[in-house]
Design a protein that fits this description.
By secondary structure, this protein is α/β, with parallel strands linked by helices. It has 12 helices and 11 strands.
Amino acid sequence: MKKIKITESTRLSEMVELTAEDGPQYPLLNFKGFDNRNPSKIKPTTANYPRKTERAKGNLEVLIASTKEGWAVKRWPLSIFSSENGEELFDARHTLSAVKYNDYPQVPAALYTRKRTGNDLLDGLKDSSVLTLMGLFANAIDGTTNAVQNDFVTAVKMVIEDEELPLTRDVVDELLNVTGVHSRYSTVGPVSGIRNAILDRNKKSTKVFNTTKEEQKDWIKSNSYFGNNNYSPVDGVAVRSKVLDADFAYRYGGDILRYAFAAFVKQEKVRVLVMSRAEHEQDIESERKQIVEVMEELFLAPINFFRVKITQIFGGMIKLPEVHLSDLPMELWAMPQIDGEEEATQLL
């Protein structure tokens, strides 16, 4: 392997005998070219530090020894991300430490900027999340054992939490697909194990509250605007409550609609409070969204069926009025259960 001693006057073309195709093809970064940098002025990013994918014993000592003899012109330069906030080294921390130890006056660098992928989730990530994922990608495809299964779990979980993304299979797969996990593991088993570990919800999230039956009862008692099967002392509106459950969404959606129909017959208004027993914020949000969608479906299905029949019989002679779920004399509210929620949230 050809190596050269780098001095202040060494030209970039002497340090690098590579093209862009020789380096990592980062799915979230654009390669902008090679340049040289003073090692003492290179700032390593802290974005992907928690991965600990460069923890292999002896890595630094080996790199110090190999770079002491000179820089290998076929070695990929230090990867540096450039943005309006400056430059950050996001891969090869040990190589940087080694060249500093060996008093390199300059070192070749591969410069990168953000790539727009057309994927809303990926393009919406913060730079720190991108560097976390791309630092992992570099370790996943480099042929070493730096990136192990737990590194993928830790990195993706960290990005999901930092970006406040829903913990769903689709989101996890979107992120995993850009980490190089499929290059590191060619079989389905390890990748499925990583995905399942990320999605594991056996441990209650620290971002939820009011999830137990007792907590929910106490909250309703302390908020007279809501209640169970009675009338609010605040404004006299009929009040009901319903515990959400994804497995019984159609049943419970029908129950809530019956509350609304009963109020319509009595020429009253009903206020329904829904709450979840789920222990993760993503599940709670999903159940809230689901109950509204199910109620919309149950409400409109017979109306649309009748509308089609009328059209078939009378053609365009009869114009039926538009009817919406919001026309019912009902309010639908969600109990505060997710970090940051201080009051109930109105869903309908």
